[in-house]
Please model this.
Amino acid sequence: MDLSALKIFLAVAHERSFSRAAAKVHRTQPAVSQAVRRLEADLGEQLFDRSSKTGTLTEAGQMLQNYGQRLVRLAEETESAVRDLRDLRRGRVLVGANEAAVHTLLPLIGRFRERYPDIAIDVRRVPARQIAVEVQQGSLDFGALTFRPSEAGLLEVPVGTDELALLVPPAHPLAKHAQVSMEEVAGEPVVAHNDPSPARERVLRMFEERHIPLKMVISLPSLDGIKRAVEMKLGVALLPRRCAITEIASGRLVAIPVTGLSRRRQVTLVCRRAHRSHAADAFLAVAQEKTTGSGRTLNTKDTTDTK
Model:
């Protein structure tokens, strides 16, 4: 159905006059009449009672007026919604991250929300190894990673750093140490995350390579659960320091570097180089403002650290 012809019909129906409708829509009367006849031909129904001089609608005309008004309103709402997307007055940014990376993303999300309060941020928990694939396929706008993915053609922007630390309660014998060894960690019951990830596998492999057995006595599905277990003195935990900022600041937990294990990790945001939404482009721009460069392209040869 021709939307412009429908608008002309609605003007005639409202004005009850072809001449007054023509003046309202800035068309000639013959053009208005032709638009109405075209609609009648398309629908196979007469819309106006031609025997009436007051522009009386037929039953089909009354039905078209009812539905037509709703169609025009919907079209106007659609145009407005698309303009809002372009003008960043609405939209959504979808980010994939594991639980630990969320803590690094929060400052970026805060800066973005200050500038674009009408755009929603949806951070979804996605296994680390799936993130780059879903970004490449368009299921996610962005992904937060601490390792270099093998997927080609992704743009990478650093958004923060973090380091692994041993978390213990304040009364723990190791709490006063400036640093601990991997052997000392192995002597403690460990509360671990039960979600497999490249970071978890890296830590386990480093202990295995040094033939240092870990005593993982409790496995939990969330970081909050792990931190609470450590507070309850059920064990110690190896977690990114940023995940426990609040607990460390309040004195509920102590973070200790582990020799040979604690190293700064770069948290990066990956996204497609093209075919991004207006909202995703704005999010990328805010992320790049805090970096020295404008991001770099990942390729299949640039995968020296895939763990």
Q: What stands out?
A: Residues 292-307 have pLDDT under 50 and may be disordered.
